[in-house]
Write a structure and sequence with these properties.
mainly alpha; Clathrin light chain; single chain
Length: 177
């Protein structure tokens, strides 16, 4: 009888262990579910903040762009090459290199991913030099036109009498001499 009792106790203990395992598993799944829900809520909250920040920064950038564009078009009529030379960025981009993190902290960089040679910085100094040369010695077709004069022109009288009618001699003057 003792052996039968031990077998029953063993089955009972095993059933309790299974129940405890299932309970732990359910608790673990419930905890993961709660953590996932909290993560989603936090993610969406951060996302909304990021969207609002992007909206404000994009609005500021757009206003700055529009102001610069208006300034460019206003100055382009006066000094064409100077306006174009101002469009070229002054800083020379460098490439982000993998390696020591200490060197990356010391040097600011701009990552270049586009252009004729992707990943290779483009040197704009020659183009800037040419545009500055054109700024100081503009070509004839890019020079601004002089403003119209305020004096009234007598084009009608000049057209009737010829180009030099006011200084030409009359036929009577030619016969008397």
């Amino acid at each position: 009888m003792r052996a039968g009792m031990l077998g029953f106790k063993f089955v009972q203990v095993q059933a309790e262990c299974d129940y405890i395992r299932r309970k732990k598993k359910e608790d673990k799944e419930m905890l993961q579910h709660i953590m996932a829900e909290e993560f989603k809520i936090e993610f969406y909250r951060k996302r909304l903040i990021a969207v609002e920040n992007n909206k404000t920064s994009n609005t500021e950038k757009e206003n700055l762009f529009l102001a610069n564009r208006e300034k460019f078009h206003a100055e382009a009529e006066k000094n064409y090459w100077k306006a174009i030379a101002e469009l070229i960025p002054r800083e020379v981009p460098t490439i982000e290199k993998r390696g020591k993190k200490e060197q990356e902290k010391k040097q600011p960089f701009i990552v270049v991913i586009q252009g004729p040679n992707p990943g290779k910085p483009t040197d704009l100094s020659r183009m800037r030099h040419i545009l500055l040369k054109l700024k100081h010695n503009p070509t004839a077709h890019t020079k601004p036109k002089p403003p119209p004069s305020l004096e009234p022109k007598n084009d009608i009288r000049d057209a009737k009498n010829g180009p030099s009618a006011s200084t030409s001699a009359t036929p009577g003057d030619l016969t008397t001499s």
